[in-house]
Design goal:
Elements lengths: L6 H14 L6 H11 L5 H11 L13 E3 L3 H11 L3 E6 L5 E6 L2 E6 L10 E5 L3 H10 L9 E4 L2 E7 L5 E6 L4
Parallel strand pairs: 1-4, 5-8
Antiparallel strand pairs: 2-3, 3-4, 6-7, 7-8
Length: 176
Amino acid sequence: MRSFLDAKPMAKSLRDSLARKDIDVSHAESLEIVAHQFGFDNWNVLAARIAREGNGAEVRLDEAIPILRIFSVEKAKEFYLDFLGFELESEFGDAPVYMHISRSGLKLHLSEHHGDASPGSTVFLWMTGIDAYQRELTAKKYPYNRPRIVDVPWGRLLEVGDPFGNSIRFSERPRH
């Protein structure tokens, strides 16, 4: 079913159909007719609405939020909140639990739900301040993880493994 987002092709189709019946309308007139059919005052109002809603010609992917499989809410909170310094945004369910966490704009989802993610996944992310972050993490004296920074061809890397076999690769681009 067509919507107002299809107004331009609809106006062209209308114009072509009328032309086959020897009825001549301009492109602007056909746009006005289609705008009225959708209940808009005129083409300018409809065009503004299409611009706001998107005309289907552009695909926009807004955000990717990795989902990591967890098996213990307690261990996940200890690692992601206490050690890595993320904040709990929301938590759903008793068992299994699904959590939204974030830190400085980065969002992760943690799930106990079977099939949401494979244990042993890796998340790669860009960041700035990798040295300060490494100092912050080592100062916490977390007994299960003492991350170090490694120089790699694309910059610097600080990789941490969570208690569930997942890895997070914090990477900083080289300074030029």
